[in-house]
Prior knowledge:
Bound molecules: 2'-deoxy-thymidine-beta-L-rhamnose
Low-confidence stretches: 349-355
Structural class: alpha/beta
CATH topology of the largest domain: Rossmann fold
CATH superfamily of the largest domain: Glycogen Phosphorylase B
Amino acid sequence: MRxxxxxxxxxxxxxxxxxxxxxxxxxxxxxxxxxxxxxxxALAWMAPGGAAGVQVQAWTEAAPDAVGEFVIEAFGCDPPSxxxxxxxxxxxxxxxxxxxxxxxxxxxxxxxxxxSPQASGLVKWFFYPGFTARTGGxxxxxxxxxxxxxxxxxxWLEARGWTPxxxxxxxxxxxxxxxxxxxxxxxxxxxxxxxxxxxxAAQQQLRALEKPAGLRVIExxxxxxxxxxxxxxxxxxxxxxxxxxxxxxxxxxxxxxWQIYPQRDGVHAAKLRAWLDLLLQGQQTAQAEEIRRLHLAxxxxxxxxxxxxxxxxxxxxxxxxxxxxxxGPELVESLLAFVAPRRLRKTRPAGPAGG
Length: 355
Ligand code: TRH
């Protein structure tokens, strides 16, 4: 089947990073994908080899020569109107999905799979990724968990010259600039640590900060998505951000800190708490509270604890969480199951209703 995926790069790299993974995974399962994107530059480092079955197309307002059986607009990005007109003229019309941002809040279960009738006569379906059985789930490529199991992280780091000394632990950092960074460096330096700083705002901020004794910093270049995953598998601790690296760190199941994308109206605080509630559900231990507090501190929502939770206990929380996630829905499988029965429906007659 042919899929058209639309992606607008709003800022940073998560919009394209997620859409690329989705496109590549659909193609791995034999689907043909056109990825329409308004700024594909980051693919040069994220996915320099491309993927068989995925065609990257520059976003255009021109009418398309053809429309696929399935159309995904990522994160409500509004496909061009000429494309939507072409969709409305196709019989049967394509199944059109708005694939939303990842969020752990309860509204996601209520909204997942709802139809939104459009003025064009088409129906747009809301499709939500998520962490629970009543959502679309998370992207998890076939073989991902097995690939991690046999992976020798130390050799991988060594081969790149990012070797932690025998007494050092390793921590990756991919983040936005933020006031809490200095406090995090102080907590990290309580034990000898090699900090592997990914490019971007946090790496730049780091340059100007005082490095406590016990902390060694290496600045990384942009890695391919595949290598970025391997970095997360290899480190003892991962600090990630946004949406896609956040998901990948959960699959890596090492102790992790999530820097949520900060929103001006502050709604990100509730989103962070909703995820922490799921992660720590049923865990009454002191470590669970420490993990919660650390996340709140990292996101500027609480004061800092004196020290980090012991890494083995922290890791056990994430291993248990990964197991729960792995028994839940996988995003591409959910998508395929969702669109199949909707494909042969006719458009509703064009009417005045908008949506
Ligand atoms: O870059 P992000 O902050 O992206 C997003 C966007 O800001 C988006 O608008 C916002 O809504 C969303 O966050 C919540 O973080 P994210 O989502 O982790 O995306 C980064 C991508 O870059 C991800 O696909 C991993 C990839 N990456 C690499 O491939 N190599 C690298 O070296 C690094 C550091 C990242």
